[in-house]
Amino acid sequence: MRTSLLSRRAVLAGTAATAALTTVPCLPGRAHAADGGARAAAPAYRWRNAVMGGTGFITGVLFHPSVRGLAYARTDIGGAYRWEDRLGRWTPLTDHLGWDDWNLLGVESMAVDPAHPDRLFLALGTYAQSWAGNGAVLRSEDRGTTWQRTDLTVKLGANEDGRGCGERLLVDPRDSDTLWLGTRHDGLLKSTDRGATWKAAPFPATPSTTGQGITLLVAAGRAVYAGWGDSDGTAPNLYRTTDGTSWQAVPGRPTGTAAKVPVRAAYDRQTRELYVTYADAPGPNGQSDGSVHKLCTANGKWTEVTPVEPGGTTSDGSADTFGYGGVAVDARRPGTVVVSTNNRWAAVDTVHRSTDGGRTWTSLKDTAVFDVSETPYLTWGGDKPKFGWWIQALALDPFDSRHIVYGTGATLYGTRDLRNWAPQIRGLEEASVVQLVSPPAGQAHLLSGSRDIGVMYHESLTASPSRGMATDPVFGSATGLAQAALKPSYVVRTGWGDHGNGAWSNDGGQTWQPFAAQPSIAKDAPGPIAVNADGTVLLWSFVHWDGTKHPTYRSADNGATWTEVTSFPKGATPVADPADPTRFYAYDTGTGTLHASTDEGATFTARASGLASGDNQFKLAAAPGRSGDLWLSLKWHGLYRSTDGGAGFTKVSSCWASYCLGFGKAADGASYPAIYQVGSTEDSTAVHRSDDEAKTWVRINDDQHQWGWIGETITGDPRVYGRVYLATNGRGVQYGEPV
Q: Sorted alphabetically, which PANTHER family does this protein's record hold (predicted)?
């Protein structure tokens, strides 16, 4: 299918053309020759993370009560992990979940069995919305190395409000075969066969379709306590069972706004006291009031032990509003407990520690010394890191009283002396990645753009970028990242930021300068950006987060001035020709039309029409080093190719869905770049590589490396044959190399 390079006139001659159809197999796991020839075995690949270090919300950490050095962590969209001190890193446990199970990468809760150290249980389900699938329970007898699965008939919500609340899954303290699972909208579930089957269990509170339902389950001796998140602050919000059959409201509980939602609870078995943190909302956002109380389970007496009451003012006059989040007790020292504030933006969150049952407290933030040299992005473009935010996951090592960890919206901090803190995050990568560029030259083989932490320059794939996140300006989320094909030192990026929404670099992305000006719509709807081949023209598209499409703007002076391109289809993503600086392309999914420009993006005209329309996920990619060689990847309609600058397209059949596509260095003896694709066939959705212009494909991932939803973007390395970079929604950048 290789064609010679055509002149600009030949490539763009003619008017709109309807896509023709040819047959090119695209089967996972093996290669098929287009003429029915021999099948090739799938190559062996090694998959690893391009290290960033956390970058996502750690919603729970659970030390095993009977095994020293063993802990588990859960995340809202990136699966679960196991920590072992002897390895000094986290091991991902749910990468085997594939495309169809993307909704299970959010971990609602986890549970261990104190009497059987190798048992682990996970309750999975990212969203409880009608469009999301039901939840599932995974159970393991080998600490998460292998799993058995039970699909539920209810939905869970690991990435919804309340995701930082306590564990909703619990092994019954009287019977290891019995498990409890609290849900958001379907009450209480119970299993008597170690999680293999589940049935509804009687519970006094009535679930709603919009509330929080059960926020926590915790064992206190032989009793089990359940928090209820749908109380108005006066109705019962904490229940207890002592026989595993009937539940009663706990008498004498605190009331009022500051004790509306029980967020987390921890039981001190030495003093027989149950500590409960409360807030006026489940969090992690939206909390403005809260408190901490303890219940003496021996006599039923409640005592308020709130370290600091919300509602004061800071030195600059800001309202010091917040709730309380995490709580953990010391298994070796009676009366030693730690709690965290949450959603405290004015005075910044902290962890309080008490050694006398909550009578007095010390804020660990006041003496904290941070070392983030391993993950420099945690300075957030400033001189030093903050203590953190969204602190709801808080755990105290049962074998080491000075070992405390707490999760934030970006990392997991740990201390072993109560003063010096550092990220305890090795192996745990949760970035939701949306942009990838692999430069053809320079120090870095990878630039990445993600939600929450903007753009990173990866001078190494095995260490967090030394420059941290790109600054000048800082972006909370990247929306565009592009490199000039003939001048790779020039890179541009766009995203959501408080001090500008676009920037350019002349050193390959190591340092940045903000655009001197930007269209007014940029602050409300920053979208993707493209730069032509020689770096002289920018096209910036604008799409609001709610889907509203706005005009695209052009700059020919490095962002100093911008002019609306009225002929550019609103909402489309601009794509630069990699060989000819005068050409840009855009695919309008609303009409199924390819548009092209031959005057450096000043005007666009329709080329091929009659292409698939309405596809809500698509990518138009230009093959490197070639002019007019375009590939159109469509979620619902497969893969198309044009060799004439978009005048006509040919369909690559047998690949009924193509989610994203990119290019890398050609194989030895091949004249065309390697093509990498996330695509679907009758068998599966998988990662593929083709070395012969899509005549044949091989699957290069395997069943243990699937990472849920992986359809955002993919690119090969132009300097290393076989290396591919894959964006995931919650497992960072995965990169694979032939073994």
A: OLIGOXYLOGLUCAN-REDUCING END-SPECIFIC XYLOGLUCANASE-RELATED, XYLOGLUCANASE (EUROFUNG)
